[in-house]
Every structure is written in structure tokens, then in C-alpha cells.
Amino acid sequence: MAASCPLPVTPDLPTLRAKLQGLLQFLRDALSISNAHTVDFYTESVWEELVDLPPATVLAALRKSASETEALPSETRPLVEAEWEAGMTDFPKIFCETSQKLVSVEAFALAAKYYSVQKLGICTPFEQLLVALRGNQNQRIGENQKAVEFMNMKKSHEVQAMSELISSIADYYGIKQVIDLGSGKGYLSSFLSLKYGLKVYGIDSSNTNTHGAEERNRKLKKHWKLCHAQSRLDVNGLALKMAKERKVQNKVKNKADIEEVFNNSPTNQEKMPTSAILPDFSGSVISNIRNQMETLHSQPHQEENLCFENSFSLINLLPINAVEPASSQQIPNRETSEANKERRKMTWKSSESNIYSPLTSFITADSELHDIIKDLEDCLMVGLHTCGDLAPNTLRIFTSNSEIKGVCSVGCCYHLLSEEFENQHKERTQEKWGFPMCHYLKEERWCCGRNARMSACLALERVAAGQGLPTESLFYRAVLQDIIKDCYGITKCDRHVGKIYSKCSSFLDYVRRSLKKLGLDESKLPEKIIMNYYEKYKPRMNELEAFNMLKVVLAPCIETLILLDRLCYLKEQEDIAWSALVKLFDPVKSPRCYAVIALKKQQ
Description:
Largest sheet: 8 strands, mixed
CATH architecture of the domain at 153-219 and 352-423 and 430-445 and 566-600: 3-Layer(aba) Sandwich
Strand content: 5-15%
Distance between the termini: 11 Å
Structural class: alpha/beta
Number of strands: 8
Shape: globular
Number of helices: 25
Helix content: 40-55%
CATH topology of the domain at 153-219 and 352-423 and 430-445 and 566-600: Rossmann fold
Radius of gyration: 31 Å
CATH class of the domain at 153-219 and 352-423 and 430-445 and 566-600: Alpha Beta
CATH superfamily of the domain at 153-219 and 352-423 and 430-445 and 566-600: Vaccinia Virus protein VP39
């Protein structure tokens, strides 16, 4: 078990519930914006129903709000936000009390910012948690590694950050087994196994993913060994080159020079530069040695077993004072060097025995892990972008199994969550729902709605890229819906148009293709009628643009609600010693960047 510092202090349950109450107060009126479907934007007069402002005013206010926030010096922002937060409870300024329509875009934008995860002050810094888990050990590596082969840059960023945290938690508890739920292609599982020497079971519901993960792990392991072998060859090749140069130059030395070197006193030798002590090495070789040493000493201990197993063998080929270190601690003595070599050999051999086992199983909150993993022992449970209900079920499995000492879950696909209080008129047999989880939201019988969860998923991607939603494609679809309603008498359709927009050359082409896909007779509509609808709604396109920007601004609040629900659920459990939300990834690289983390009491 690693020597660790006290874990960071996190908000308690009463504090989180108070934050949740304020968020719900805002969302009770704002949620209607997120739940409005842009397909029905014109057919149901969404703008007139929900917004009591001209679209140009909304767009200008949102753009001004964004630019002012970016322009504020970092030291000024907290003061401005604190001044505004004092009057945060005056919600009628945002929505009209009688019509419930939006009347103040400025207040709406400020409230949405305030109720984001970062502004609420409920997030624990990643670096602070790592320091606490590791104690006096080396701090995090950072983004100094190249993207691992077989992963894109986004996935590499996610896998490296999450695996670093998981390995630190594993060291904290002194355990070696990890269960990766929704392991998919096995990127995280493979990395944890190969780099950190953990025994990982990757469980996925798709048999295709499981077989793909096995093949990908085989290739990654081969690549890992090649990198390791190449590093060994580079170091040993350099040593061989040095030995050859020394042999050649020894032949041309004259006896007088050799005697002169041996007659020098030890005191004089200590004052001599490296080039005088090693006249038989060329400048390029000495330069290469220094480069190898700098690279070696820049690696944290956790990295040593990757590709520098034999690096210290280079030092042993040189005289004890052949390389000039910056400090006496940089170069170990021969005993330490030998010990380090043996330790590295044992580390690599040990990592060879650590395995990643992909398994196929559909996981629910009631899944019995002992039936899936026969050698289940004290372990961690993790999930990187687990879809829909799998994220909350991961937390439920964690709380109900004594063997699982910690959990690290990053969810995604909020639109696939099951909601207990959605469509209550339908008869349902499900007992455990994806949302809500905590007692407070259950008592409130709170429901987000699928459109709100969907808009959060889509909008978060655009927020990360600093963009709004793609207006023209949504505009085409909204006008098409009005054509279908007027000309075919259809208000609801089970079929979907899909991603036709990118294949179309014009609005006319879009309508023709869409009608065919929906099984409607497109010959019924002449070109003139179709274009009349286009001309009718073209001047109102800015309404749709402004409305979608409101959805984008509101998206982080929906995610905050879902994450707060999960964190409150963990805080309600008696046997959990510590739980928190941690911003694990760069949101520009990975929009779903928050991890729900919990640790049980150490035995």
C-alpha cells in the first residue's frame, strides 16, 4: 500500500443537496427549452411559445455574454460572479411568472454558467487527488508521451489520464485486479495491463467487441515488446559503437601517451574535464551518452519498465566518472545500478504474467460478478464512457459488492438513460432506473426527458468545439416537417430521415430524398410548392439559430444534474469513505470529461 496523504475534502451531502435544489429551481422553467424538439420547431410554433424576445436580441446577448467572459481577466472573474450570485434567487427576472417565457437572456446565460460543474464548486482537482493518493511518490507524468498506437489522439488522452488515476488508486489499496465495464475495444484494459502490470477483466455486452479487443490487445502487446526491444537495441548498439571506437583508437596510441595518463594523480584527474578522461571517445558518442542519460533521468519510476530496462547497463560500461551529472544523486553507484537492473528485469517478467481477459456479458445492476469472474478478489471497478444505464449500474454494483474497493466511472450517452418518472402512464416492470438515483430527486419525482438529455449530449460536443448546433441542416428538417404535416396529414412518424443533409445539393434535393426514405410519394409535390415553403421560413431561420444557441448554453446544466444525482447517491451510502467528481480530461479533447469516483474504507 502506498504511503499517502489525507484525501481531499469534498462537499458533504447537505451541501450537495442545497446545490441540487438551486439547480432544480432554475431548470423547472429552463427545461422546456431543452425538451423542445427542433423537428417540430415551426409546426408547433416553439419560438412563440417559449421565448418573448426577438431572435436577434437573443443572439446578440449570448454572443456578448460569451465574449465578455473570455475578455475578463482571470483574477476579476470570481469577483464579478460573486457579485451576481448574491441575487441569484430572483428567478422571475429570467422567466415571466405568468407565461413562463424567457424574458432575460443575460440572466439566463449567467444562471447556466453558475450551475455548471466547475462553477458550483463541487469538483475535486485531478492533481490534488493524485498527490493525496501517491503521497511522496512521483507526481503525474503529464502529456509528454506520444499517442499510443491503435488509438486516436482523443482516446489516447483519455486512456493515459484515466489509467494513471486507476493505477494510483490500486497502489493506494495495494490491489492488482481491475474490472473494466463496457470495455469496448479494450484500449483502457490493455493499457492498464501492459503499462501498469494490473490484472484486468474487460467486460462488454458485444461479442464482436470482445473478439476485436483480444486481437487489438495482441497487436498492442507485440508493439509494446518491439518498442521495448528497440530501446534495448538502441542502448546496446551505442555501447557497442563506443567499444569499437575505443579499440581502434587504442591501437594508434603511443606508449608515451598511455604512460602519461597512468602517471596522472587522482587529484589532477578529478579536475580534468570528461574529454580529457575519455580521449578515446568521439564527441558524437559522448553527446549521445549524455542524451541517453538525460532521457533516462527524465523518466518517472513508473515509466522505467516501458523501454529503459537496460539503460543502466550503459553506465556500467563507462568509467565511474565518465559522465558529469548535474547532482550527485543523478547517477547511482554500481551496486544501485545492478539492483535497478535486476528490479527492471523482474518488473518486465512480472508484467508478462499480468493478463487482460476480455469477457462477454450483459451487465445489469443485479449482475453477480462471481458468476462472471471465477477468481474475483479485492479489486477496482472502472468504466470509460459507459453508455446509458451502465454508468449508474456500475455505481450500484460497486456499493453492493464488498470485494470492490473503489470505482471510477465516466458516463456518456445520457439520452439512453432510463428515467423512472418519464412516461408514467405506461405500465413498466423495471425496478432499477438510470435516473434518478439519489433520494432527493426520487422524492421530487424529477424527470429530465429524452429530448433534454439528447440536447445535452449533442450540445456538449459543440460547446467543446466553441460552436453552435448546425443550423441549416436543422432548418431543412424543421421545414420538411411542416411540409409533411400540411401535404400528407402526418404529425408523427416512426421512421427517421437520418443523415441525408450532407448528401444533398439543395433544399429541393433534401426534400425529395427525405420523402422517398419516409415512404411518401414525392411526385405529389411540384417543385414550386416545395420552394414556397423554403421561402416562407427562410426569414425565420434566425429563430432556430437563436433557439439552438439557448440549448447549447443550457447543456452543461443537464449534465450537472445527472452527475450531482450520482454523487449524492454515493454520499448516501454508509460504507463509502470518500467520493467526488473529478475533471479527468480536457473538455476540448473529450467533452464528457467528469469522473465519478468513490473509495471504500481501508481495512
